[in-house]
Amino acid sequence: MGPHPAVAAIRLAVRRVLHDVLTEHTERVARLSHAGSSPRSEAARSDASPAARAEAHRTSPGAHRSARTGRPETSAASSLPRPSTSSPGRLPGLPVGTPAPLVLVACSGGADSMALASALAFEAPKLSVRAGGVTVDHGLQDGSDLRAAEVASRLAAMGLDPVEAVSVRVGRGGGPEAAARDARYAALDDAAERHGAAAVLLGHTRDDQAETVLLGLARGSGIRSLSGMAAVSGAQGRYRRPFLQLDRQTARKACLVQSLPVWDDPHNADPAYTRSRLRHEGLPALEKALGKGVVEALARTAQLSRDDADALDTWAADAAASVRDEAGQLDCAKLYALPPAVRRRVLRRAVIDAGAPAGSLFARHVEEVDRLITGWRGQGAINLPGRVEARRQSGRLVIRQG
Hints:
This protein is of the alpha/beta class. The protein has 15 helices and 10 strands.
C-alpha cells in the first residue's frame, strides 16, 4: 500500500524540483571541468567568505544563465546519474571530490513548510542530495526564539543536516509585512551562501499564489505583478517553490497523516495584516459570489501573465538598443513608435539603470515619464525615486541622477 495521496503529491512535487537541481548541478560541474576548473576547488569555495563565494559564483562560467521554470520529470531524470548506495555524499559519474548539491528548506513550523521539509527529508537521500533546513526567528512575538529552536530540533529529527535557527531584526521600511519578508530573505540568502546551497525550497502553495495575484491587482501594478510568484526565482535560480500547483489543504493533510506537529502563526489570522484579511475575508467572499474554482483560476492567471510578461520583457530588452542615437541618448520619436507595453518597460529599465530603486519605482512613476513621450506639452522634469529625474530635451529623453 502506497502513501496517502496528499503525501504522495508533496513528495512528487519535491522530487521534480530535486531532479532539476541535480541536472543543473551536473551541467555546472561539466562546464567547470571543460573550463579547466577543478570541481574539488570549486567545492572548497564553500569555506570562503560569503562575499568571496558570491563573487566566485558571479564570475564562474554560466553564472548568468537564465533560471528555468521547471521541466518534465522524465527529461530531468533521464540525464541524472543513478543514486549512489556506497557513497551518499557524492554523485557517481562525477569527478572524485565533487560533493552532491545541498538543498535547504525554509521552514517556519507551519503546515506548508513542515510538509515541504518532510518531503525533502524523504526524497533527498534517494537521489543522493544533501538536505538541510533553516528557520528564521523574526523576533516579533514573545517566545519566538524558543519556537524557532523547537522547529530546528524537529528538522534535525527528520535527518536534515545542516539545520539552524537564525534571528533577524525586522525594520520598518515598506510596512510590517514587507519589512519581515525582506529580513527573512536576507537571512535565507546569507544561510545559502554560508552553506554553499544550490537551492532553497519555499512552501508557498497555490492559495498563496492566488492571494499574491489579488494583491497585485489591487495595487494596479500591471501584468508583471499579476504574474505572482515564480516557481524559480532569486540569484541563479536559488529559490524554488515546489507547491505552487498544490493547495494549502493538501499540505495540511500531509502533515496530519504523518503526525507532524505544526504551528499556526497568529499573524496569519490577524486582520491588521492585508494578506490575512484577504485570506479570511476577501477570497471566501469571492468564492461565495463567483463559486468554487477562484483560487485555481487566479493561479492559472498568474502563469499566463508570467508568460506574457516574460515575452514583453524580452521584446523590450531587444528594443532598448534600437531607440538610442549615436550618443546613447533615448530618441523620443523612436520610443513613440514602440507599442506602449514595450515602451514602458524600456523606460522603467532606463530609470532603474540611472539609479532609481526598483522597489520604489511604481507604475505611476513610469506613466509620468511616458507622458514626456506621448503627451509632450513642454512640461518640466519628472522627479523620480532615488533622486533621479527625467526630462525631454531637443527630442531626446534625458534620465539622470541628481
